[in-house]
Amino acid sequence: MGQGISAILTFAIGVAISPVPIIAVILMLFSQRARVNGPAFLVGWVVALAAVSTVVYVVSHDGNVAQTSSTASDSVSWGTIALGVGMLALARRNWRKRPAPGAEPVMPKWLASVESVSPVKALGLGVALAAVNPKNLILTAGAAAGLAQVSGLTTTDAVVAIAVFVVIASLTIAGPVVYSLVGGAKARASLDSAKTWLTAHNAAVMAVLFLVFGVDLIAKGLPPLTH
């Protein structure tokens, strides 16, 4: 079980560091429907991560069983490298998009309407930002595919590892939701400060994150191909 959790831990932290989804959920928590929309967004986020990681794990595991161990290992290695290259491309794009010193940060236009969405749309937005967002999709797929490569992992171990992945990846979304429900006015002020900082530094944070994970994935994918 420990090996399974180790395989997904870094990826889960990468998903958790998602400035735009965090900003989105904070904005929802400032709306009149905060007590419904915040939890709805969280549910969509959790369900999407669980679904994607489970599907990718099952497909990867079944594919590994159908292939020889050597062929399966090479396929996963090339897939890992491809994910890493994708991360580096996203790092370059985000670095180029970062605002100049003193300039107003540019955020997705849809964020302006987040405070007025319905609970159903909040749920759907949570699903989209967890499962459709390129960064989170790549990291979730990478975690599940890597988990499928852990030798001797039982079904129970895999389920526990995926559950741990979802919990860790959801901490930065669940944290603001719970804090807003129990923290009162102090929570609102703290969340507003966090939103301001994340808005200003979103592009730089994402660029560094993509760079680190891109290099890490390529480094993990290369060794098996050199033996």
Topology, element by element:
Elements: H1 2-16, H2 19-29, H3 34-66, H4 69-97, H5 119-131, H6 134-148, H7 155-226
Helix pairs in contact: 1-6, 1-7, 2-3, 2-7, 3-5, 3-6, 3-7, 4-6, 4-7, 6-7
What is the distance, rounded to the nearest whole angstrom, between the alpha carbons of the first and last residues? 27 Å
Runs in which pLDDT lies below 50 for 5 or more consecutive residues are: none
Radius of gyration of CA atoms, rounded to a whole number? 19 Å
Mean pLDDT: 86
Helix/strand-derived category reads: mainly alpha
The portion of residues assigned to helices is over 70%
Strand percentage lies at under 5%
Structure annotation, total helices: 7
By DSSP, the count of extended strands is 0
Give structural notes:
The structure is a single chain. The protein has 227 residues and is mostly helical. The chain has one domain (2-226). Helix content is 83%, strand content 0%. The chain has 7 helices and no strands. The protein has helices at residues 2-16, 19-29, 34-66, 69-97, 119-131, 134-148, 155-226. Helix 1 (2-16) packs antiparallel against helix 6 (134-148), helix 1 (2-16) packs across helix 7 and helix 3 packs across helix 7. The two termini are 27 Å apart. The mean pLDDT is 86.
